[in-house]
Structures are given as structure tokens and as C-alpha cells.
Write a structure and sequence with these properties.
Blueprint: H1 14-37, E1 43-46, H2 59-74, E2 79-82, E3 90-91, E4 100-101, H3 103-109, E5 114-115, E6 117-120, H4 126-144, E7 149-155, E8 162-169, E9 172-177, H5 186-197, E10 208-214, E11 217-218, H6 223-229, E12 234-235, E13 245-249, E14 255-259, E15 262-266, E16 280-282, E17 288-290, E18 297-302, E19 307-312, E20 314-324, H7 331-353, E21 360-373, H8 381-390, E22 394-401, H9 419-427, H10 431-440, H11 446-451, H12 453-468, H13 471-485, H14 501-514
Parallel strand pairs: 1-2, 2-5, 9-10, 10-13, 11-12, 13-15, 16-20, 20-21, 21-22
Antiparallel strand pairs: 3-4, 6-8, 7-8, 8-9, 14-15, 16-17, 18-19
Helix pairs in contact: 1-2, 7-8, 10-12, 12-13
């Protein structure tokens, strides 16, 4: 199991977003119950059990995790996990919490999950870690009885000062790597790639072993999906060899492949985080399209027979409905008729998803209507939502008026230099889509974007790719925005103004005299003054 995202909400789709928040908790409870009914020896969670880092997780989400995972331990089934990019470490500025925390560490301190991870011995007190491990094992034995498990610290050969903390259950070693971003600096990325290979050198002391990671692996994940994510992937050849199974997370699309004869599996998510992860799209031409992440659920792996079984389960059904109005169309009648059709098609599609009535947790589906309207007549989106609600769905509506295009750029001079204010003006009624995309690719913190202009530009480009759904239009709009928002972009633009030879010579002379004075660029360094 991976990418549960307890605590997820979809800001741009308020009613659907709140329903997903609740249904995801219920889906996780049902997923654990279903998994335990299959009599597993261990449950593994390959990252992003939670949507938010420590300090931003609700008590309801924490309680849901604790309640469900305790059921596993009560049945003698240990739970092993790694931290993903969402439930990542975060420094806590509180006098009574000296360490860095994550939601998974809280669960581990409550004896409900065992984290496997690599550690730097110059940062972590290994003796204190060993004492903590012994205390964990004593508490497990006291609370749940005799469970055949051990937790081991072992130095990684070839990585001086780096220790792996892994779990042995029976005769199987569960070895994990917490999430590591690899698209910040290419030099750091390649160091991480080579580091992954070193896990092949460890003698785990078991006959079989499982490798867990929360990363994008090229060769398993499609090139199209990697482009959609807009992040650097790790080539499959960098995975450590000699493992019997590779349990991965981070990709919300169910994907299974092989490496050196062993299964490499992304189980996918049981929920959705933005409009790009809705199950289906009903086009304006009446065609129902199955989207990338429609196949939600988790995987049962039978190590004895080297076989995987797909268990389908999701928080709620969802469909995007695209409507292009003609000048004489009644928007309210169109929405009512099209929503009826969409829901009927969705019900038929759900029969293909699973014949198990408990595979879809929330009985009410979510419907997002994306409407384009000619002219400038005002359409009442509140009334449209009410119509969708009357048809038996959680509603969300996005209206785009002709003349606005996909994204509008106003070249008039502006006094404000506030990023959000400028982007709100630039994206107009698609600003909430932009925020959705930014969250979906992991750039949730506005401060982080402000401090990293290059990351912001990548995020902007990814947002345009998804919002416009047309690569040529996205490229054209991006070039206009880059010229408008930035002094210069750190990627080449065909029509970029070149510095004069005289200016270049002057800069070189000044650098010789004063020395290089370049500071890390922030977003404000790019804005047109």
C-alpha cells in the first residue's frame, strides 16, 4: 500500500474536497480491514500515509491511522513504512520536542509502525537509536505478544558513516529508503543514484528481502507520466539488485513491472488529490475517457509463488465533465442533461472497476463541470452546483468565458510585486487550477517557491501543460509569461533579448576587480521592475 494521503483536501473543489477528506479516512479503514482479511504476514506502506507533514495533521487523521494500524498488530501483523515527500520530516520549534518529527515517527513512538530508513551516523546518536529499538521491541512484546521481528542497524558498505535501519520479519528483510528529491541539482542526484546501488552490498542475514522506496523509477513509470509529473526520474538500472520484491510509492497510477526477475510495483493511491486524478473525463463530444489514475487500490504479494494480486478500492468515484456552450445554449439545461449522462456512464464504468460493492467507499460521486461559454454573459455557478447536487453528486464548477483564452497576460505596468497577486491576475479564473497543480507536484509552500525561482519556473511550466492541455499553446503562453514576469529566465527563450557586447565586457571587468558577487536567486530577482 502507498500514497493514502490521510488529510487530503482539494482546495479548488470545496464540496468534493471536503467529501474526499472524510471518505479517504473511511477508505483507509476499509483497506486495512480488507488487507487483514487476506491473512498477510506483514503490511507495508511505501510513503505518503499522510497528506501533510508533522504539525499540519489533524487529530482525526492521526486517530484513523492509530485505530486501523493497531488492528494489524492485534492480529500479529507488523506494519513497516517509509516516509514519502508529503509526510516528510519537519523541524519542530517547540521546547518539549527537540527532534525533527514526521507523522510516521509519532506512530512509531506509539509502537504502531516500524520505519525503515538510512541514517547519517554523525547526525544520529546510534547508541540512543539502539536503546530506542530495544524499547520498541519490548513494548511490542508487552502489548501484542510474541511477534517474530527484529530491527537491525548496519553500516552500508561503500557509504562511510551511513547506516541502514531495516526490519526482519521471519526470514524476510524489509529495507527502505525515505523520499529523496532528485531534481534539485544534477550532481546531488547522481550521488543518490550511486548510493541506491550500495544496498546490494549489505548482508541482511536473511534468505529473502524486500526493497521499499518512494521515488519515480524510469523503466517502470511511463515517459508520458514522468512528463506529467515534471520531475527527474531514476533509471531502473540504479535500483539495487538481488531483492525479491520492490514495493514503491509516489506514483498514484497502479503500475507493475519487473527488474532482474523480481516484481517492481506501484500500488497506486486509494484517493485523488486534484482534478488530474479524477477517474474519468466526459468530453464535449460525449466520449468517456479513462484517466491515468482510475485504477485505485493496493496489492497483495505472494512471496512463495512470486505472484501479485490487485485489490481495487477507492474513496469515491469522480468524473470531469467538459461542456462547450454555443451562443444560444441554455447552460443550466446543458449541465442537467450532461450530468445525468455522465453519472449513468460512471455507474457503468464502476461495474468494470470492481464487482465488489465495498470497493467504492463513498456512495456519492464527485462531478467537476468545466464549462466554456461564448460572449461575456454571466452564468450563475451557484445554481449550476445546485443542479449537480440535485442529480446526486458532490459538485464543483469551473467556468471560462470566451476572450479569456486559457491564460491571459496583461502587459500593462503594475505597481504590485506580490507573486500571488500577479499570478491571480494572470491566471484569472484558472488560478485555483494553478494552485492544484502546484500542490500535486509537491511545491505546496509558497515560501519555498519564493526562495527558489528555478523551482517556481518549473512549476509554472507544469501548471500550463496541465491547464491548457495543448503543448503548443502551453509553450507559447509560457514564453509570454516568462518575458512578462521575469527579467530573464534560467531557460533559453528564442526571442530573449541579448546583452550588448559592451555590457558583457563591462560585467567581466567588474567581476575581475570586485570578484564574483552572485547570490542565490530568489523569485523577486526575476520580476520586471
Amino acid at each position: 500500500m502507498a500514497d493514502v494521503h490521510l488529510g487530503v483536501t482539494i482546495k479548488a473543489h470545496s464540496e468534493i474536497g471536503m467529501a474526499v477528506n472524510v471518505s479517504t479516512r473511511n477508505a483507509f479503514k476499509r483497506a486495512i480491514d480488507k488487507a487483514l482479511s487476506l491473512n498477510p504476514d506483514v503490511l507495508i506502506i511505501s510513503g505518503d500515509l499522510f497528506e501533510r507533514e508533522f504539525g499540519n495533521v489533524s487529530s482525526a487523521d492521526i486517530y484513523t491511522a492509530m485505530e486501523s494500524l493497531s488492528k494489524a498488530w492485534d492480529k500479529g501483523v507488523p506494519v513497516v513504512g517509509i516516509e514519502g515527500n508529503h509526510d516528510k520530516l519537519k523541524p519542530i520549534n517547540l521546547p518539549d520536542i527537540k527532534d525533527v518529527e514526521s507523522p510516521l515517527r509519532l506512530l512509531e513512538r506509539s509502537n504502531l509502525i516500524i520505519r525503515t530508513e538510512y541514517l547519517a551516523s554523525n547526525v544520529v546518536n546510534l547508541n540512543a537509536m539502539r536503546r530506542s529499538i530495544e524499547a520498541f521491541k519490548r513494548n511490542v512484546k508487552k502489548t501484542y505478544g510474541d511477534i517474530d521481528l527484529d530491527i537491525v542497524l548496519k553500516e552500508i558498505p561503500g557509504a562511510i558513516g551511513i547506516v541502514e535501519k531495516y526490519v526482519i520479519i521471519g526470514d524476510v528483510a524489509f529495507v527502505g529508503v525515505q523520499y529523496k528529491p532528485v531534481n534539485n541539482r544534477i550532481s546531488d542526484s547522481y550521488k543518490f543514484y550511486e548510493f541506491l546501488r550500495l544496498f546490494s552490498r549489505i548482508d541482511y542475514g536473511t534468505t529473502r528481502k524486500v526493497f521499499m522506496a518512494h521515488q519515480t523509477i524510469e523503466g517502470i513509470v511511463s515517459t508520458e507520466f514522468i512528463r506529467y509529473l515534471n520531475e527527474q526520474a531514476i533509471e531502473i538500472r540504479y535500483l539495487p539488485k538481488g531483492f525479491d520484491y520492490y514495493a514503491l510509492g509516489h506514483i498514484h497510477q497502479y503500475t507493475a513491472g519487473t527488474y532482474e526477475g523480481a516484481y517492481v510495483v506501484y500500488p497506486g493511491s486509494i484517493t485523488f488529490r486534484d482534478a488530474g486524478e479524477f477517474d474519468y473525463t466526459l468530453t464535449n463530444d460525449g466520449e468517456l475517457i479513462k484517466n491515468k489514475c482510475w485504477d485505485k487500490g493496493f496489492v497483495l504479494y505472494d512471496m512463495e509463488n512470486n505472484a501479485i494480486r490487485r485489490i481495487r478500492l477507492k474513496s469515491m468515484s469522480s468524473i470531469r465533465v467538459k461542456i462547450a456552450l454555443n451562443s444560444n445554449d441554455d447552460p443550466y439545461a446543458r449541465v442537467r442533461v450532461t450530468t445525468k449522462k455522465a453519472l449513468a456512464m460512471l455507474r457503468r464504468a464502476e461495474e468494470e472497476f470492481s464487482d465488489d460493492s465495498e470497493s467504492i467507499v463513498e456512495s456519492t460521486p464527485g462531478v467537476l463541470v468545466e464549462m466554456t461559454s461564448p460572449g461575456d454573459r454571466i452564468i450563475d455557478d451557484i445554481l449550476l452546483r445546485e443542479i449537480i447536487r440535485e442529480e446526486g453528486a458532490y459538485p464543483s464548477v469551473k467556468i471560462e468565458y470566451s476572450g479569456s483564452g486559457s491564460v491571459q497576460v496583461d502587459d500593462s505596468s503594475r505597481e504590485s510585486m506580490d507573486m500571488n497577486e500577479i499570478l491571480r491576475s494572470v491566471f484569472g479564473d484558472k488560478y485555483t487550477y494553478y494552485l492544484d497543480v502546484i500542490e500535486s507536484i509537491g511545491l505546496k509552500s509558497e515560501a519555498r517557491i519564493d526562495d527558489d525561482a528555478d523551482a517556481f519556473i518549473r512549476a509554472l511550466r507544469a501548471a500550463l501543460d496541465i491547464i491548457t492541455e495543448n503543448s503548443e499553446e502551453a509553450e507559447k503562453t509560457f514564453r509570454i509569461l516568462a518575458k512578462y514576469l521575469f527579467k530573464y529566465a534560467p531557460i533559453p527563450l528564442d526571442d530573449e533579448e541579448k546583452k550588448s557586447e559592451k555590457e558583457t565586457k563591462k560585467e567581466k571587468i567588474e567581476e575581475k576587480v570586485k570578484g564574483p558577487t552572485r547570490k542565490p536567486r530568489t523569485l523577486m530577482d526575476y520580476f520586471v521592475k
